[in-house]
Structure formats: C-alpha cells, structure tokens
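In practice, a research group might receive sequence data for several interacting partners and want a quick structural hypothesis before committing to experiments. The following worked case mirrors that situation: the sequences arrive first, and a predicted assembly follows.
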Amino acid sequence: MTNRPFIAVVDDDEDDLFLIQEAFKSCLNEENVILASSGVDLLLRLETVSILPSFLLLDLNMPQMSGFDVLTRLRSDPRYTLMPVLIFSTSNAQPDVDRAYELGANSYVKKPASFADYKSVVEDLCNFWLRVASTPSSRIY
Amino acid sequence: MFYPLYVLTIGADTPDFHSLTKAFHTYGVPHQHVSPEEDGSVAFYFYKERADAMFVPTLIMLDNDTCQSASVLGQLKHHSVLRRIPVIIYGRHNNPEVVTLTYQLGAACYMPRPDNWSSAMMAFCSYWQKRVAFPAIRAEDILL
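A structural hypothesis for the assembly, expressed as tokens:
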C-alpha cells in the first residue's frame, strides 16, 4: 500500500472539475487526479489504470448517467466494489443522502457553495482518506 | 439540515478506548459505547432500546482487535435501515489483507489504530463532523 495515491473525480460541470483539480494540486503537491466529465468517461478511464484510486469523488446530478447510476455500476462490478466512493454533491435532499448510503457509498460529502471553500474541503478529504484511513489501493505515509 | 455525527463505538473497555473517548469529549463528538461482552453488542444495543430518540447513531466504529467485526457488520448489513449507517473499522493492523477484508465486509472505511487519538481526531472530525452528511435513522426503524 505504498503506491502513489491518485484520486478520481467525476463531475459534468467544467468549473467544478477545474476547482477540484486545483484544490488537489494544492493539497497533494502533484497532479495525480483522474478527471472524468461523465460516468461513461470514468468507466473508460478506469479500464486504463492498474490500481484502484484511493477514492472516487462522484457528483450526483449529471445528465444521461447520474451519480446513482454510476455508483450502482461500480458496486456491481467486482473490479470496483472495494473502491471508496465519496458522493460529492450540492444536493441537500435527505433522500439523496439515504439512497447514496443504501447503494454503497462510503460517505456523502457536501459540495461547497463557494469557490473559496473547495480547497479546505479537499484538504479535509485528503487528510482523512490519505493520511488517517487506509484504502485497498494506496496510502501516504 | 443534515443529520449530525453521533458515534456508537463497539469494543473492549481498554486504555486505548479511554483515549478515544477522551478525544471525542475534547472535540465535542456525541458518542455511546457498547462492550463486545454485552450479548452480541449491536443486537444488545438495539434490542434494549438504548437507541432512543436522544441517541441514534449515524456512525459506528468497531474495534477490530477486541470485537468480531465480521459478525457485527453482518448484522448491520442485513438490516434494512441499519445497513445505511457508515461503519469504520479500526485496529492495530494495516496490512493489505486486513484492509481489503474490511472493505469486502461492507465497512465504509478502515483506520489503522493511531498512536495518539487526540492527534488523529482533528483530521477525523474535520472530515466526519464537518463535511459528511449522514443517513436519516429514526429510532423506531432500527430496533432489531
């Protein structure tokens, strides 16, 4: 578990993707993030990697394939069942939270409302998932 | 308004557990504890209706070194509502087999037991207390 960590992110909003990428660059001091603009894009990119991401940040509200659809696909595929999936959504709807956990999300993270908060959210994500927790793929020591 | 962090810990009453409890107090994390000796731990907690309206856990932490994590997780994951509660398993090991098994069992996360719970609690709370939304668990839904 000493591989360099990498993170996967799925979000159909280009601005959000850019902010998340910049926040991870700042947090990890390196560019080690797979950015996908849709669930289909993510599934294609996962085919090209040899180890699981340390975690996946998954938006919920996306056209064609929603975050719930992506989560269902990942949990039904033996290759990806162990990958931590963190829902990253602006939705405040409790039924969305409940459904995410029901489908096997590892946690549900509130997407920040302001751009300035992205960095601190990503820092908190990295500090816990990469420095406190262990995942089946990789961990920073 | 999301449900707040309420932690149910399951594990033996050890000095390490006291450190964890102290760290919870320091960071203002509401928590309750079930000993693995208590008649099936999770079943005991919910059968005895300790999960009342005042304290319904939204996060469960299992001490892998002092309780049967697989058994407890099995109970939780077979319950229609309790299965939603994220479960963190923590323990002294950090080898790939243990970590992988934990996630295979359906845990939300594996945490190697920290040397110092007070230090680890800052990162723990910055994530679970500040950033995470929890499932809606009602007391009447969770009695086994």
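Before designing any experiment, note the following. The mean pLDDT of chain B is 87. Chain B has one domain: 7-133.
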